[in-house]
TrEMBL record, chain A:
One annotated GO molecular function: sigma factor activity
Domain RNA polymerase sigma factor 70 region 4 type: 112-163
Domain of life where this protein originates: Bacteria
GO biological process terms on file: DNA-templated transcription initiation
Gene3D superfamilies listed in its UniProt record: 1.10.1740.10, Winged helix-like DNA-binding domain superfamily/Winged helix DNA-binding domain
Family of the protein in this entry: Belongs to the sigma-70 factor family. ECF subfamily.
Pfam families associated with the record: Sigma70_r2, Sigma70_r4_2
Ranges for domain RNA polymerase sigma-70 region: 21-85
Protein name: RNA polymerase sigma-70 factor (ECF subfamily)
UniProtKB/TrEMBL annotation, chain B:
Lineage: Bacteria, Bacillati, Actinomycetota, Actinomycetes, Streptosporangiales
Name assigned to this protein: Transmembrane protein
Superkingdom of the source species: Bacteria
Alphabetical keyword list: Membrane, Transmembrane, Transmembrane helix
Transmembrane segments: 29-48, 60-80, 92-115, 121-139
C-alpha cells in the first residue's frame, strides 16, 4: 500500500493505517532527529514529532505531500531544540555561492556523510541529512527548510565541501 | 560503527500515541463543546426572559452558570483543535450531533420564551444561526469525507 493511500485511510479515521504510518516512518524520522541531536534528545523529539503528526494528520490537505509535511514537522521540533545553534548559523551564513554542476562532487557516499556529519555546522548538517540520508529531492528540501531551491543547491555544495575538508582532516580516505 | 536504534519500538511509540488517537477522548470533547454551548444558550435565554427585575445575587448566579458552560465549551473546542482533532468520518458524526443539539436547543428555548410571553422571534433568530452554522459544518464534513473516499478509490484502496 502506498503512503498516500495509507494517509487517506488514516484521515478517514482508520487507526490501523495510522499505526502502519508510524511503523513505516519511525526510523527515517528518528534518523533525522539523531543526526541533528544527541541520542537522548533524539528519542524525546521523535515522540514529540509523532504526537504533532497524529494531531495534524486530519488537517493535511494533500495526502500525496505526506513526506515533506512529515519532515517539516520534524524540522520544527529539531529547530526548537537547537534554536541557539540555528540563530548562530543564520547570523554567520556566508553569501550564497553560484552552483556549478560537478558530477564528481555529487557522488558523496552515504557512509561518508554518516562519518562526517557530527562535525558540520547545523545548516549544512541538516541539508546533508535530508538530501542524502532521507533521499528527499531538492524541491522537497526547499519546502522543508523554507528556502528557495537555488539556496538548497548552494547549501548542499558548501556542505559537501565542508564534509570533504572535515573528513580529510580526520584522515578519512574514500 | 555500532548501529544505533531508537529507544522505543514501533509498538511502544503507537501505545504512547493512544491518548491522542482515543475515540473516547474525542467523544468527551465533542460532548463538552456541545453541552457547553447549548447550556450557555439555555441559561442566557432564561436570564434574558426572566419576568420582572432580578436581585443582584440571581444575576451573579446566571452569569456564573453561563461562564461555567462557556468554559466547558472552550475546553471541548481546545481539545478538538489542539489535542485530538477529529478524523473525516468522526467530523461527519460530530456535525450531525451538532445539528441535532442546535435544533433541540432552539425548540427548547423558543418554548420557554413562548411560555414566559417574551415572544419567539429572538430565540428563533439565535437558534437559526446555530442550526445554520452546524449545517455548514455538516456539509463541509461530508464534502471532505467524499473527497477522501474518492481519492481512496482512485488509489485502488
Amino acid at each position: 500500500m502506498t503512503d498516500e493511500l495509507l494517509v487517506v485511510n488514516a484521515q478517514l479515521g482508520d487507526r490501523a493505517a495510522v499505526a502502519e504510518l508510524v511503523r513505516r516512518w519511525r526510523l527515517p524520522v528518528w534518523t533525522y532527529a539523531r543526526r541533528m541531536l544527541d541520542a537522548e534528545r533524539a528519542d524525546d523529539v521523535s515522540q514529540e514529532i509523532w504526537l504533532a503528526v497524529v494531531r495534524g494528520l486530519p488537517r493535511l490537505r494533500d495526502p500525496a505531500r505526506f513526506r515533506p509535511w512529515l519532515f517539516i514537522i520534524a524540522r520544527r521540533s529539531v529547530t526548537d531544540r537547537l534554536r541557539a545553534e540555528y540563530a548562530r548559523a543564520e547570523a554567520a551564513r556566508p553569501p550564497e555561492e553560484p552552483v556549478a554542476d560537478d558530477p564528481a562532487e555529487a557522488l558523496v557516499e552515504r557512509a561518508e556523510v554518516m562519518a562526517g556529519l557530527a562535525g558540520l555546522p547545523v545548516l549544512e548538517r541538516e541539508i546533508l541529512v535530508l538530501f542524502y540520508l532521507e533521499d528527499l529531492t531538492v524541491q522537497e528540501c526547499a519546502q522543508i527548510c523554507g528556502i528557495p531551491a537555488g539556496t538548497v543547491k548552494s547549501r548542499l555544495s558548501r556542505a559537501r565541501r565542508l564534509l570533504r575538508a572535515h573528513l580529510t582532516e580526520k584522515g578519512y580516505r574514500p | 560503527m555500532i548501529q544505533e536504534e531508537p529507544r522505543l519500538s514501533a509498538q511502544e511509540m503507537i501505545e504512547r500515541l493512544e491518548s491522542s488517537l482515543s475515540k473516547r477522548r474525542r467523544i468527551r470533547a465533542v460532548t463538552a463543546l456541545l453541552a457547553g454551548l447549548v447550556g450557555a444558550v439555555f441559561v442566557t435565554s432564561l436570564w434574558a426572559t426572566e419576568p420582572g427585575p432580578l436581585p443582584g445575587g440571581t444575576h451573579t448566579a446566571f452569569a456564573v452558570l453561563t461562564g461555567f458552560c462557556l468554559a466547558w465549551a472552550c475546553y471541548g473546542g481546545w481539545v478538538l483543535t489542539r489535542r485530538a482533532p477529529l478524523f473525516a468520518t468522526e467530523r461527519v458524526i460530530a456535525a450531525w450531533i451538532a445539528v441535532a443539539a442546535s435544533v433541540t436547543a432552539t425548540a427548547l428555548v423558543t418554548a420557554i420564551a413562548v411560555i414566559r410571553g417574551t415572544g419567539p422571534l429572538p430565540p428563533l433568530a439565535v437558534g437559526a444561526l446555530f442550526v445554520a452554522a452546524s449545517l455548514t459544518l455538516a456539509w463541509r464534513a461530508h464534502t471532505r469525507r467524499a473527497h477522501l473516499l474518492h481519492l481512496k478509490r482512485t488509489l485502488g484502496g
